[in-house]
Amino acid sequence: MTTPNHRPRNELGEYLRARRAAVDPETVGLPRGRRRVPGLRREEVATLAGVSVDYYTRLEQGREKHPSPQLINALSRVLELSRDEQLHVHRLAGDDPVHSRRDGNGASAPYLNDLMDRWPMNPAFVYDDTQEILAANALGRALHSPFKRTDNFARMVFLDPAGPSFFVEWERVAIDTVGSLRQAWGKITSRHRVETIVSELRSESAEFLQMWETHAVIGKNHQRKSIDHPAVGRLTLDYLTFAIPDTHDRHLLVCDTPAGSPSERLLELLGSLAA
User: Fold this and answer.
1) Is the pLDDT confidence value at 6 over 70?
2) In the prediction, which pLDDT does 190 show?
3) For 67-76, 89-98, 149-158, 161-170, which range has the lowest pLDDT when averaged over its residues?
4) What is the pLDDT of residues 208-218, one digit of tens each?
5) Distance CA 177, CA 155 (A)
6) Residue 107: its pLDDT value, please?
7) Is pLDDT above 50 for 81?
């Protein structure tokens, strides 16, 4: 593991190697041919990104730690990185475009609690980059009632016995959760706190460890999840995540269902049971 100012592991190089191995040569106009390793060769990445093979090799080996944002953009194009993955690799290189555009890192605004309490049909939560749940409205607490602890989304998914039965597509939810933590890991402002939960999960969950080592980066914006709630049965929810202005690591999660749908009626039932 690492500390905020010391990185014994070459995280940028590890990520570049992992992504290089995942690229199909033919998608970037290169013949597949006979290759000893999957994906692209170092010299191919260097040529396509417009940098010397020696420099790119030093980058992967950790002997070069400060590539320019322009080079990171070029590598992101060659490695076919998604928007979330591009942000992650910028952060691993010590450049956080989002952080540089924001001021302040205070807690979520007090008005959010009052606002969430006015949503009787929408489970809602405030959480941070470590997946720690900082606030929840009444329906949100009722939604998570099957769990023993409801303080951290990642612990609920990987360590709570209710997780695999609560989430119908548990593996997909688990991969998304790991990818979100990996994205937060790349933020210098959040890394020290993210390391704590990652260390715990790595030591207590073999599934988490395996998924973490894939280096997958997944942002949380809009996801649809089906859950089996022991009180009301199966319902499908849209999970909508929003960044909270004037904070670096706080997010608002709102769960929604189409008006008049069976899931909306089940949420209404759940709310009445909780009341």
Assistant:
1) no
2) 86
3) 89-98
4) 999 999 999 98
5) 10
6) 43
7) yes
Pair of tokens at residue 259: 């008006």
With b for 16 or more beta-carbon neighbours within 10 A and e for fewer, the 65-96 pattern comes to eebeeebbebbbebbebeebbbbbbbbbbebb
Give me 103's structure tokens: 């001021």
Q: Tell me how many degrees the CA angle 101-104-107 measures, rounded to the nearest 5.
A: 130
The model carries a pTM of 0.70
Which tokens hold the place of 14? Answer: 């590890």
3-state secondary structure the chain: CCECCECCCCHHHHHHHHHHHHCCHHHHCCCCCCCCCCCCCHHHHHHHHCCCHHHHHHHHHCCCCCCCHHHHHHHHHHCCCCHHHHHHHHHHCCCCHHHHCCCCCCCCCCHHHHHHHCCCCCCEEEEECCCEEEEECHHHHHHCCCCCCCCEHHHHHHCCCCHHHHECCHHHHHHHHHHHHHHHHCCCCCHHHHHHHHHHHHHHCHHHHHHHCCCCCCCCCEEEEEEEECCCEEEEEEEEEEECCCCCCEEEEEEECCCCCHHHHHHHHHHHHHC
